[in-house]
Fold this protein.
Amino acid sequence: MFSTINQINQNYFRDKETFNTSKVSFKGSNLQNNPGLALKVLNKDTFQKSNVQAFTGNSDPVAGSDFLAKDDYIYKLFFNTPSKVNIPGVSDKFMVYHNIYTVGDVNLLLVPKDTGCRSLYQTEQKYNEELHKSMNSLITFLKKMYPDRNIYFAEHGSGSVKGNKQDKNGRSVEIAHGHFIIAPEAKEPSLNTFITALNSKLKQCNWQNIDKKSMKYEGLIPDKDVFKAISDKLGIKFKSEPPYLLIGKVDKSSKKQEGFMILKTSESDKTPSQLIRIVMAELFYGSDSPEFWDWKKLMDCHNNGNTSQFTPRLNDIRKANEDFWERYNKTINNL
């Protein structure tokens, strides 16, 4: 467990050669008494005092690639293994990490290194070949690891509603990232079931005209034609890319990829934080109780010294994590 700033410096920061401990201030108690405390770094090149603050579960969305360092720190804290995963064939413009708190048996994040990318659709416009190469490599590798399981996909895509400021649309971090999920073996919903559950949750959040705002399509990342088709249904010409929610599935038998996108077109469309994780928890575990999906509450409970509510789920994730690395090593050795 980290007890000093120097240990944080050595074990947590990627750019530790530029880190200056005298320039860092903390909000809250010291690290020894609060080992669940991680850091939010908004400027990893200079580590100016004004750009460093304590990170807890209730913090504002984390900027840029800083959430990857936080993700790695928290994952090691609870599961004693690194969160980063090296997948053969993934472009050097992308990284693959375990999600902080897995929903399902596996939840990998594909993340662009370009911190200016705010959605995978936007990423595709800039890194089309590299994105699709990386996604296909990740999917191919997961299919080798889990040949009899579906792969599910999800993204909270940020964008601009009617040309206003960027809307993170329920996402906890600013940088784009897609979720690649292996559900519990006995709980593999169809994409239509996933869509119905998501739409039902959105209706509870005051979303209107869901049928007009959404579309099912082939593939996981929508192309411009999908945006245009939804625009035509709504009779709206978008001035900029609107926020969206994506879910999808790679079928375990046919290998067919299908996606579903719904656009946020009004400020009245409210998207709670971690919404898709809540929907997945209900589908996979039959419950929306926080221990099945809420990494922020887990961190709050950890900082308060009582994670007993999360113990059964943490143990399940540890078992799934052990199984993941056994499958991973076997797959790598058979390449």
